[in-house]
Amino acid sequence: MSLRRKFALALVLFTIVLTFGGSVLAWRVMSRSLEAEMDEKLVWIAGAAVEIYLEGDQLVFFQRGDESSPFWTSHQRRLEGLKTFVEEAYVFRRSGTLGGQAMVTSEPADVIPIGTVLSFLDAYPQELAQAWEEGSAVTPTFEGPGGQPYKYGFYRLQDSNAMLAVLVQADFLDPLTDLRQTLILGALAATILAGILAYLLATNIVRPLERLSRAAIRIQRGRWDTPVSEERGDEVGRLSRAMERMRIGVVQRDEQLRLMLAQVAHEIRNPLGGLELFASAAMESHSGEERARLLTRIRTEIEALNGIINDFLAFARPLDPQVRVHDIRGPLTEAAELLDLELAGEGGSLEMNLADRPLMARADPDHVKRVILNLLKNAAEAGSNVWLTAWWWNGEVVVSVLDDGPGVAAEERDRIFEPFVTDKEQGAGLGLAIVKRVVESNGGRVELIDPDGTAEPGTPQTGPTVPSSGSGAEFRVYFAGSEDLFMDPEDD
Questions:
Q1: pTM higher than 0.70 for the full model?
Q2: How far apart are CA 188 and CA 273, in angstroms?
């Protein structure tokens, strides 16, 4: 079953249960309320008739043949006058039979004479017993002549062994019948409207989902050129925007993969071509010195090729940083020592300026060393002098790597951390992309400082001698500091 049908069916069923259940409950409550009100009025009518028209202490002495007496005739006319409000009225006395013997009724004497046993009252023993005991009672509704509903009301005559019974039509059921029809029609109308509303709502929800489903299938099949259309501003809209971001991410990763494959082929093809030439020349050479020189070149090319492969592996390998709080000066010193001798042999220098107090950061020490060493090597290739500085600023440990080289071209600054972006003749252009990826995996960030000479926030007031404004390149790495440890008083 489709989502549209499930949604519509659920809403329709809920509406049916709610409307029909509410209608039945309302009908029952109204029925009981009206019946209770009618019972009260029925008892009131019988009681009023007893108090006004009837003399119970005299009626019990009527005997058969008294129908022609003025006293009996007077009471019979009084009961007959009650037929304006009731259908029938009977005054009877208790006898050996359950129903009792009639004394005077609303019917003429030739229809119900004195002493007639009212056997139709035998159907209400509980109500009669209640009336003899408590003074009044009302029977349940029953079906009378013509299929109409009726009720009997009983009221005991005071200080006598006689009781008045009145029969009334239960006309309170007429508005209940109309109410029931109205409730049924209302429930049916509500169900139909709920069905229409459910279909519209389900369509409004399902159609965008169907479009998103088709978009997901396109992405799964590799058709990434069609953007995911943005839906409305609710949860479905957020889902569409998330899918569009996913599509863009897939496109970017696919582009990076294609670029990486092309770059791998290009970077490996060039050294392999050189290796082939050097190997052929070495095989044909009869000079030992020339052969040694060619083999040295072959070894150099192999090392360069191995470095390229390692860069690609490092970029593709998933990271699992072991983040812990440590003094970042240790990894910085180790990275600087690895590069110091190399720079000194080439006539350059590495100047390191670290704080005298511990710089506690939350990061993987090996990753810190790897990142800084990569930046130091880039700086050493760009210039002859390199400066490494670290300080505490605003809850973070800031590490700066600065060189006196030509700097980064303006057109490359915005793309400097993208994969395969490089201004070098050799290399895959993955060094800074790897740096950015490693730093972010440790919860930090890296940026290239704008060479406009403006003082950046967090620049130490005292530090190394740096190149003049506008020359060289400065990279800054920010690691999260430990809030529980020492903070520089200048930060307060």
A1: no
A2: 84
3-state secondary structure of 147: helix
461's tokens: 């007031």
**Full pLDDT tens readout for the chain, 492 residues:** 666 677 677 777 777 777 777 777 776 777 777 777 777 888 887 777 777 667 666 676 778 888 888 888 888 888 888 888 888 888 888 876 566 888 888 888 888 888 888 888 888 888 888 888 888 898 888 888 777 888 888 988 877 788 888 888 877 666 667 777 777 887 788 878 877 887 777 777 777 778 888 888 888 887 777 887 776 667 777 888 888 888 888 888 787 777 767 766 766 776 777 777 878 887 887 787 887 887 888 888 787 778 777 767 766 666 677 889 999 999 999 988 888 777 766 767 888 898 888 899 999 998 898 889 889 988 888 888 889 999 988 889 999 999 888 888 877 777 778 766 665 555 455 678 888 888 988 989 999 887 664 444 455 444 444 444 446 889 999 999 875 544 444 444
Q: Which CATH number fits domain 324-491: 3.30.565.10, 2.60.40.1090, 3.10.20.120, 3.40.1010.10?
A: 3.30.565.10
Listed residue (338, 347, 463) closest to 400, CA to CA: 463
Q: Which residues contact 385 (CB under 8 A, 6 or more apart)?
A: 348, 349, 350, 351, 403, 404, 467
The neighbour count for residue 325, using CB atoms within 10 Å, is: 14
Look-up of token digits 């009131």: 44
CA gap 184, 53 in Å, rounded? 45
Q: What value, to the nearest 5°, has the Cα angle with vertex 402 and ends 400 and 404?
A: 170
DSSP conformation letters of 50-73: HHHH--HHHHTT--TTGGGSHHHH
How many angstroms separate the CA atoms of 260 and 312, rounded? Answer: 8
User: Which residue, among 370, 355, 404, has the nearest Cα to 477 in the 3D structure?
Assistant: 370
Strand 149-156 versus strand 142-143 pairing type:
antiparallel
Q: How far apart are CA 138 and CA 155, in angstroms?
A: 9
In single-letter form, the type of residue at position 44 comes to W
Q: What are the angstrom distances between the C-alpha of 12 and each of 25, 189, 204?
A: 19, 11, 17
Instruction: Kindly state the DSSP code that residue 455 receives in the 8-state scheme.
Output: P
Same fold, 3-175 and 324-491: no
- CA-based nearest residue to 484, from 383, 399, 370, 361: 361
The pair of structure tokens assigned to 368 is: 């810190």
Helix axes 235-284, 288-316, angle to 10 degrees: 170
Quote the tokens at residue 280: 């052929």
Considering only the top CATH level, what class is 235-316? mainly alpha
What are the residue boundaries of the structural domains of the chain, listed by start? Answer: 3-175, 235-316, 324-491
Top-tier CATH class for 3-175: alpha beta
